[in-house]
Each structure stands twice: as structure tokens, then as C-alpha cells.
Amino acid sequence: MSNITVCARFRPLSSKERSNHGDSVCIHGIDNESFIFKDDKEENFKFGFDRVFYEKSEQAEVFEFLALPIVRDAFNGMNGTVITYGQTGAGKTFSMEGPSILACDEQKKGLLQRTVDELFDCMKYSDASVKFTIKLSMVEIYMEKVRDLFDLSRDNIQIKESRVQGILLSGATEIYVFNSAEALQSLASGISNRAVGETQMNMASSRSHCIYIFTVQQELTKEKRVKAGKLLLVDLAGSEKAEKTGAEGKVLEEAKTINKSLSALGNVINALTCGSPGKAFHIPYRDSKLTRILQDALGGNSKTALLCCCSPSTSNSAESLSTLRFGTRAKHINASPHAHCSEESNAKKHGVYEATKDESMERIL
Ligand code: ADP
Ligand code: MG
């Protein structure tokens, strides 16, 4: 049984994709857990995930399946992580924050607004003898530097590890928030700081990872004890191959460095899913800032959900296939890192390839 929930989400065709006559939809849904994917060579692949969200799916459905159990657990003192993965333009930020963090109608609210609403709702209905505090931090990883989005002068936040609290971002601003409106205002200020920093550094948000951290602390006054749950929401940089972005020279080198942290994430997932039985093996969390921050999320001390965002268009099928294979592989992470690879081959069955984790590893690493 995997300790990570993996879902796929297909956004609607964009107007550009719709007006391009060569483009069509490359997925054929079977049910809400599986679909057939046709690549650009007209080959069919069958994929299965914990849940598949097709173009008509609502933001509320995505939140309820993917994040709600994790948010409720964080409220009860456990750690949780929700990650959006996929190429630029696939719908990661839309899933995370909707079209806008503040000016957004109820239906379009993303994972962030719904998380905030749920946390304050839980607080409202909880035992009056428990004193809750919710703290918020926001950081961005760009070119292997962790930047505080609540204080741009803190542009090199260090990652530390504590035996009790796990991975910590030393010196990152923590804002106490007392209601949904305050929390959303703080998130909006972090998001706007992201844009300011970007212009200063001449970069685009698709090239950085953004991490939202909610810490829910409860003082159990009767038991005289404090417990805290940490909830990470992670909007990853675009997963497209650096060479395919058309970038050259310095920009290409930069894109490659950024992609390295996503390959490091792939390597950690690989190490967590492929171990020789009975042998201790190294999990390369320290190979990037991203994997170091996600160490608790991937290593078993956290409930984790991954949303693989894809375009439904044939013109993006190569990148979508790579995203779906990444998700397939992540599904094989076990709570115990001593899981091993299956010998399952990539047999072509009735014209349909079953996407196995072995196959996805080939492509990602
Ligand atoms: P990413 O963050 O992965 O680069 P975005 O979330 O910014 O991509 O999405 C790209 C565009 O597609 C945006 O204009 C966004 O509003 C739109 N979009 C993405 N997902 C959906 C969806 N599920 N429904 C409607 N529009 C979407
Ligand atoms: Mg984005």
C-alpha cells in the first residue's frame, strides 16, 4: 500500500490548442481511475491513478479527494504535503490558487483557499479547551537558493533538521493568522513578492518551486502539552525538458540547474521504490534543496498527495507522457523505503501498453 496518493488532472484545451487544427485530445477516459493515452506516434498507453480528474472536474472535487484528508490530519497534529507537478501551462498554479488568490469566485477557489477555509472551520468546531494557532510561511526555491517570500531580504534560508520537528527552514518568516481573510491577504502578499523578485532576477515563476507552509499548533491546556502539524503545499517549477524550451546560453544553463532539482526528486523517488531486499541503501535527499525540504513528505513521516497536471492536447503529448510516468513511479513509494522493484515487463497487451514503474524510470532519469 502506497503512502502517497497520486492523481492526474487534465485541464481543458486552451484556446491556442483549440485553434490549432493539428491538435486533438490525446486521452480517452475509461473511468475515474484510468484512461487510455495516445502519444504522438499513435501508440496507446493505459494509465491508472488513485483518481483522474478530467477537464470538467471541479476545483472542489480535487480538493476533497486530494487534500481534505491531509488538511484534517494536519489539524490533528500530523504532517502532510500536497504537490502539483507538470509542464508549464499544465494547470499547477490554477489547481493551487485558482485564477487569483483573492478575487476568485467560490467555484474556482484552489487548494490554498480551500485549505485555509477548512483549517479555520475545524478550529471553529473544535474543543474550547484547546488553544489553536496557525502560522504561515512562504518560500521559493530558485537556482538552489531558498528565498523568503514574506521578506525578500532573506534570500538564502538554510534548511535544518531537528529530531523532534523534522526539516525546518531556519529564519523563514512565520506569520500568525487568525482568520481566513488574514491568511489569504498574507498569501497574496507572498505571491506578489514572488512577482517583484522575479522581475529583479529576470526570471519567470515557471522556473521556481513555490512552497506554502501552514503550521497548526494546538495547546492542550488540560493535558499541558503542545502538538503541531505541518502542512506543505508545493507548486513545482515546470517539468519540461530544458532543451525543449527553446532557451539558449545562460538561460539554458539556468533551466538545466532548475531541472536538476526535479531530477533529484525523480532520483529520490527511484531510491524509495527500488531497494535490494535486506540491504540498507542511500536516499539522496541532500542532492537538492527541494528534496531536502520534501524529505519528511517522501520518507514516510507525512501523508503526501501528488497532482500530475497535464494538457489534454496531442501537441503536448510527449511532456504529458513524461508527467504521467513520473506519477506512476511515485505511486510505488512505500512507507518503508525497503520496497523493491517488480520484474513486470512492458508487454504490449491488446495494442495497449501498461505503464509500469520500470518503464517510467527509463524516461525520467
Ligand atoms: P502552470 O502553473 O502549470 O504553469 P497554470 O495553472 O498557470 O499552469 O495554467 C495555465 C492556463 O490554463 C491558465 O490560464 C489557467 O487559468 C488555465 N487552466 C489551467 N487549469 C485549468 C482548469 N482546470 N480549468 C480551466 N482553466 C485552467
Ligand atoms: Mg504556475
Beta-strand content estimate? 25-35%
Shape: globular
Cα-to-Cα separation, first versus last residue: 24 Å
Largest sheet, in brief, is: 9 strands, mixed
Rounded Rg = 20 Å
Please give the share of residues in helix: 25-40%
Secondary-structure content class: alpha/beta
The unreliable regions are 335-365
Small molecules in complex? adenosine-5'-diphosphate, magnesium ion
Order of SSEs: EHEEEEHEHHEEEEEHEEHHHEHEEH
Number of helices: 10
Average of per-residue pLDDT values = 85
Q: Give the beta-strand count.
A: 16
Please provide a brief summary of the model.
With 365 residues, the chain is of the alpha/beta class. The protein has helices spanning 15-19, 59-75, 92-97, 111-124, 180-201, 249-273, 289-293, 295-299, 317-330, 357-364; strands spanning 4-10, 27-29, 34-38, 44-48, 51-53, 80-85, 130-142, 145-148, 158-162, 166-170, 175-177, 209-220, 225-235, 303-310, 348-349, 352-354. A hairpin with a 2-residue loop joins strand 15 (348-349) and strand 16 (352-354).
